[in-house]
UniProtKB/TrEMBL annotation:
Lineage summary: Bacteria, Pseudomonadati, Pseudomonadota, Gammaproteobacteria, Chromatiales
The species this protein was found in: Thiorhodococcus fuscus
Residue ranges, annotated region (Disordered): 294-328
Occurrences of domain HDOD (ranges): 25-220
PROSITE patterns named in the record: HDOD
InterPro entries attached to this UniProt entry: GAF (IPR003018), GAF-like_dom_sf (IPR029016), HDOD (IPR013976), RNase_Y/CdgJ (IPR052340)
Alphabetized SMART domains for the sequence: GAF (SM00065)
Protein name stated in the entry: HDOD domain-containing protein
One Pfam family linked to the record: GAF
Superkingdom, natural source: Bacteria
Length: 501
């Protein structure tokens, strides 16, 4: 009988993988993994991405700030909602904004912070150069090239996040004459940081292009070449300078790959270096901006050391107050204007309208949870379609109700009478027909219901509450809720009339 083989002893690389799994580098967060999966799914609904981002109000504010920046929104079309950002910019661009922000969230103290800043600055510079090259040569998804380039050296970024004293030792050893950085890594750590990157890329399934690149570094297709060229440009600018002979060779390679003249290619690379610096500031990574070398022609005495006006460096919005989102009438007005704009464009449908309305109720009125449920044509079953807010996945799974023969309840009364309802504790205590499962979902707290009506036919219901934060639902909140429901009804009826016409 064969004896079971003893487990293989852990290598130093395995030990580091364990360390990173236990730490909280934001790019390895479960939420970020969901965004990666969405970026690979061409059929993913807008609500999935919106729900992930909207779960964190401060993160939402930063995504919207970037969505309105000149880099992503050169037409200056006002974007007030994540739903609208996905429509205007595309799901890939919004995923990239979210993923890059997550990477910038890493906080490092001590001597390693400088090295992390250098790595991040180089990664952002490389990613911007690669994306522009991809765009010029007509790549199918320049945003995918951007993310793959940004995360190629994720092992290096992770190491400088968590390296501590070991990172300081590696920094000193790497400066030893005659010793390459890779040799220093092997001598001190027992592995190369590129190996750590490869392991992380595969374990976290970061992107197909990225996995293909690290598995086949000598592969010669345009996408892999573009990614590699972005890194070569960023490293050469840092180590040799923009006027070096090596940079001239890279300018020539860029010209060939992008089918440009050499002068046009040079101008393009110089402009992207400037854009990378601005982008770092926009993302709140101003600490990395000084490590993005600027061509002499783009420097200005009145600018900061990295060639970007220090007065425009982005600051992170203050976190939202504890206990849930506050009501925000300005946000309500902005979202209602976006709803009107979408209807005027004649290219929206029920899904887009309802996702925008849900975001308006969630962020504008300040709900903890908001849900849209569809009813079957015979009005016997109501089932959740979209939800935002706290524990929204559970809400989606459990918000399903069947009308019992000869009976009704508050939910189906709302559909039958086509009237909104504020269901408070008094309703429940007086024996009003609130389904037990709905009372359980609402945690016996006050909630709001409103029918969704298209051409006088009730097709579903809106639900909203503040149960998790235990805040009250006042009459003003109910009036605002009814207003959003009314706008949804008018918009959907307008779409139906347009389709029939």
């Amino acid at each position: 009988m064969n004896k079971p083989q003893p487990p293989k002893p852990k290598t130093k690389l395995d030990t580091w993988m364990d360390l990173i799994r236990q730490q909280k580098m934001p790019v390895f967060d479960a939420t970020v993994q969901k965004i990666f999966r969405l970026s690979r799914d061409d059929k993913a609904p807008l609500s999935d991405l919106a729900g992930i981002i909207l779960h964190d109000p401060a993160f939402t504010a930063r995504v919207l700030k970037l969505a309105n920046s000149i880099h992503y929104n050169p037409s200056s079309t006002a974007i007030s909602t994540i739903t609208r950002a996905v429509i205007v910019l595309g799901i890939n661009a919004v995923c990239n904004i979210s993923l890059t922000l997550s990477l910038v969230e890493a906080t490092i103290e001590g001597a390693a912070k400088q090295r992390f800043a250098r790595e991040l600055g180089r990664a952002m510079h490389a990613a911007v150069q690669a994306r522009r090259l991809a765009m010029v040569r007509g790549d199918k998804s320049p945003e995918e090239v951007f993310i793959a380039t940004l995360l190629t050296r994720i092992g290096e970024l992770a190491f400088w996040c968590f390296g501590g004293e070991l990172g300081e030792q590696l920094e000193r050893l790497s400066n030893t004459p005659g010793l390459s950085p890779e040799q220093a890594q092997e001598r001190l750590l027992g592995f190369r940081l590129s190996q750590l990157s490869r392991q992380l890329i595969h374990e976290w399934h970061l992107t197909e292009l990225l996995q293909d690149t690290v598995d086949h570094p000598t592969k010669r297709n345009d996408r892999v070449l573009t990614l590699a060229l972005g890194h070569q440009i960023a490293r050469c600018a840092e180590e040799k300078g923009w006027q070096s002979a090596d940079m001239e060779k890279l300018v020539n390679k860029s010209a060939i790959l992008a089918a440009l003249s050499k002068n046009d290619a040079r101008s393009m690379l110089h402009e992207e270096a400037k854009q990378a610096c601005i982008m770092a500031a926009d993302y709140g990574a101003e600490f990395a901006a000084p490590y993005i070398p600027q061509p002499a022609s783009s420097r200005d005495r009145n600018q900061g050391s990295a060639g970007v006006d220090t007065s425009v460096l982005a600051s992170k919005p203050a976190p939202p107050p504890a206990g849930g989102l506050p009501s925000d009438h300005l946000t309500q007005m902005k979202i209602l204007r976006e709803l009107a704009t979408l209807l005027a464009e004649e290219r929206c449908d029920l899904n887009v309208i309802m996702e925008l309305v849900l975001e308006g109720i969630y962020r504008g009125i300040g709900m903890d949870r908001v849900l849209f449920a569809l009813t079957t044509p015979d009005k016997r079953i109501v089932k959740a379609k979209y939800a935002l807010g706290v524990d929204n996945e559970r809400l989606m799974q459990e918000f399903q109700f069947v009308r019992a023969p000869g009976q009704t309840n508050i939910l189906f009364e709302t559909l039958d009478r086509k009237l909104p309802r504020l269901v408070n504790a008094r309703d429940q205590e007086s024996g009003a027909a609130v389904p037990e499962s709905l009372e359980h979902l609402a945690n016996s707290a006050t909630f709001m219901l409103a029918p969704i009506i298209v051409s006088n036919q009730c097709i579903g219901v809106l639900y909203a509450d503040r149960s998790p934060s235990k805040r009250t639902l006042d009459p003003t909140s109910f009036q605002d809720f009814k207003h959003f429901a009314h706008q949804a009804n008018m918009g959907l009826t307008q779409i139906r009339s347009r389709q029939r016409g």
